[in-house]
Design a protein that fits this description.
With 193 residues, this protein is mainly alpha-helical. The chain is built from 8 helices and 3 strands, in the order ββααααααααβ.
């Protein structure tokens, strides 16, 4: 009997574990079979390649989250609701589209809760915000508590985004053609200053 080796074309690795191009293909196929298909860029175009880079980022982020949850002993049990972590569009923009998409998963939200549990805001920061934005919470029974919750939520999202960026930097390798969509070194990047 002759052993046959099948080469796996790798888009990325997470802690040395491969993320196959086939996985990116499969994720793209699911997206293209969905209701938003008409809004997606054509395959093979610059924008289509950027979509594949974004999907690769989502896949590696999901893997990093799953790995770090195991390392930290976090399970999806008791995860906060998605609306608690990402209450509005501003929150989604603060944390970024990839992290926001990953946070649809309860395990990711439980990890978010674990990583950011110790984040707090000072009374001075709350008072300063209230002083600078006196009309922001009119009619709210306890405006200082509402401000504290809003500021803590923003601080937690910022802390999670930074933590996740650091973990990806430590664990992820991206193959050429699968770089981050915003990487200025890749040829399809259109963000210019």
């Amino acid at each position: 009997m002759v052993a046959v080796r099948i080469a796996v074309v790798v888009a990325a690795t997470v802690a040395g574990d491969p993320v196959a191009v086939d996985e990116v293909d499969a994720r793209e196929a699911v997206l293209r079979a969905g209701p938003q298909t008409a809004a997606l860029p054509r395959p093979g175009t610059s924008e289509g390649r950027q979509l594949r880079r974004w999907l690769t980022q989502l896949l590696v982020t999901e893997r990093v989250i799953a790995r770090e949850a195991v390392v930290l002993g976090v399970t999806a049990s008791g995860a906060p609701a998605e609306a608690e972590v990402l209450p509005d569009l501003t929150a989604r923009l603060e944390i970024g589209s990839i992290a926001a998409s990953a946070l649809a998963d309860p395990l990711a939200r439980a990890l978010y809760d674990h990583v950011t549990a110790s984040i707090s805001v000072t009374d001075a920061a709350v008072a300063d915000y209230h002083r600078r934005n006196p009309g922001r919470f009119p009619g709210v029974p306890n405006p200082l508590a509402a401000i504290a919750a809003m500021l803590r939520g923003a601080a937690r999202r910022r802390a999670f985004r930074i933590w996740l960026d650091q973990r990806r930097a430590a664990l992820v390798w991206l193959a050429p053609g699968y770089e981050h969509p915003g990487d200025p070194r890749q040829p399809d990047n259109t963000h210019r200053h």
